[in-house]
Design a protein that fits this description.
With 266 residues, the protein is of the alpha/beta class. 44% of the residues lie in helices and 15% in strands. It has one domain (8-263): Alpha-Beta Barrel (TIM Barrel).
Length: 266
């Protein structure tokens, strides 16, 4: 098999944070500090009301714009929802789908998430599909079964031609913003290996080797290198740490360092 080095993929999910002024200042700080992020794809996903504002701040930079969610229709009578067409119109390239907060707090099913995945890909958006287990599921040895189900149901009907526009974010629900439980780099690496093996069973070994899998479980600047240095951990989905420009930039720089180290001849 031809060696394929996957770029590091760093995504900031601002969740339901920032005012218009804060969003503008945060985006400006990231753009001013990022320079040329060689070998790293950097994305920020602000709240819906600030997509246009942040998108304007990102123009001409190496940072891409993403959205935190979408509805699986291009238009229609869906009060309060946002379509992929609208996201594209605002300059979005990426969309996060299946985030644990939407699964567990808002009750989104694997079937509904699959509708979103297929609609987003068909519309021309790049999809970041989130998967991950709860603490109860991990402690009862259901992690692999759960990840397999989320992956197979979430990607049902997705064509191989769409795979270059798909990445997976592994987010152990029990490790997100939890002071008592933290996933170790080894646990992240093991889960990513499980996902890549399961993905291979669906789409084949070559596509699984190309697949970008991010880790998303309380990643901060101080622990980024420990995660990104692990084989098969291709990036990070960042929550709270993405709300501080310096912290987010430090994570991106860690990604650049790790990919450059990987590219060095042995």
């Amino acid at each position: 098999m031809t060696t394929h080095i996957r770029q590091r993929f760093i995504v900031g999910n601002w969740k339901m944070h920032t005012t218009a002024f804060e969003a503008q200042q945060l985006a400006k700080g990231i753009v001013d500090g990022i320079g040329t992020a060689d070998h790293v794809t950097a994305v920020v996903c602000p709240p819906f009301p600030y997509l246009a504002l942040v998108g304007d701040m990102l123009k001409g930079s190496s940072v891409a714009l993403g959205a935190q969610n979408m509805y699986p229709e291009t238009e229609g009578a869906f009060t309060g929802e946002v379509s992929p067409t609208m996201l594209l119109d605002l300059g979005c390239k990426y969309v996060i789908l299946g985030h644990s907060e939407r699964r567990h707090k808002l009750g989104e099913s694997d079937g509904f998430i699959n509708q979103k995945v297929r609609c987003a890909l068909d519309s021309g958006l790049d999809v970041i599909l989130c998967v991950g287990e709860t603490l109860e599921q991990r402690e009862s040895n259901q992690m692999e079964t759960l990840l397999d189900r989320q992956l197979k149901l979430g990607l049902a009907g997705v064509s191989s031609e769409s795979l270059p526009h798909l990445s997976i974010a592994y987010e152990p629900v029990w490790a997100i913003g939890n002071a008592e439980h933290h996933a170790t780099p080894q646990q992240a690496q093991d889960a990513h290996a499980v996902l890549r093996r399961q993905f291979s069973q669906i789409f084949g070994e070559t596509e699984a080797h190309r697949l970008t899998i991010q880790y998303g479980g309380s990643v901060v600047a101080d622990n980024t290198a420990a995660f990104l240095s692990r084989h098969g951990v291709d990036g990070a989905l960042i929550g709270g740490a993405s709300l501080k420009a310096d912290e987010f930039l430090a994570i991106i720089r860690a990604g650049i360092f790790e990919i450059e180290a990987e590219m060095q001849p042995v």
